[in-house]
Amino acid sequence: MQLKTDKFLQVVDCLPNLLTAASREDFTIAVATLMPISIEPYCVLTGHKNFVTAIKLTSDCRFLISGDADGVVIKWDLQNFGEQHRVISESKHESPVYIICFDNNEQFKTVSIDGKIKFWLLKPFKEYYIAETGKFL
């Protein structure tokens, strides 16, 4: 059996025993295990209202950060899927988020075509600095 890939964008982050991919059709994120390889997702994360354009896992696989074509950034708690598993940022980019990178498991950056690099804290989830670089082409 092969995993159908026609509904997934090429937005993937892979860590030991975990794989993530963004769905093109319904703006969700499918999280599946790599060992053993699973045809069905471990879980499906819903909350974006546009295409997911960037995904990044913390090195301990506890949190996933995603950004979308509307500039929205969401923090997902992959260990607690109750009411608080999803936190949508109050601040957003003016354009799609294309890069997410972690400094450590407490801080990360998002980069957008709007020419801004936003610096974030994971706990509490908030933006704390914006660097203006000029618009990217």
Structure description:
The protein has 137 residues and is mainly beta. The chain has one domain (8-132): 7 Propeller (Methylamine Dehydrogenase, Chain H), CATH 2.130.10.10. It has no helices and twelve strands. β7 (73-77) and β8 form a beta hairpin. The N and C termini lie far apart (41 Å).
Topology, element by element:
Elements: E1 8-15, E2 18-23, E3 29-32, E4 43-45, E5 52-57, E6 63-68, E7 73-77, E8 86-88, E9 97-102, E10 107-112, E11 116-121, E12 126-132
Antiparallel strand pairs: 1-2, 2-3, 3-4, 5-6, 6-7, 7-8, 9-10, 10-11, 11-12
Brief summary:
The chain is mainly β and 137 residues long.
**CATH C-level:** Mainly Beta
Task: Return residue spans where pLDDT drops below 50 for at least 5 consecutive residues.
Answer: 1-6
Our measurement of the CA-to-CA distance between the termini, rounded to an integer number of angstroms, reads 41 Å
Shape: globular
**Whole-number tally of structural domains:** 1
- CATH topology, by name, is Methylamine Dehydrogenase, Chain H
Q: Give the count of helical stretches.
A: 0
Known CATH architecture: 7 Propeller
Mean pLDDT value: 79
How much helix is in the residues? under 10%
N-to-C SSE string, H for helix and E for strand:
EEEEEEEEEEEE
Question: Strand order of the main beta sheet, please?
Answer: 1-2-3-4
Number of E strands: 12
Which class best fits the helix and strand makeup?
A: mainly beta
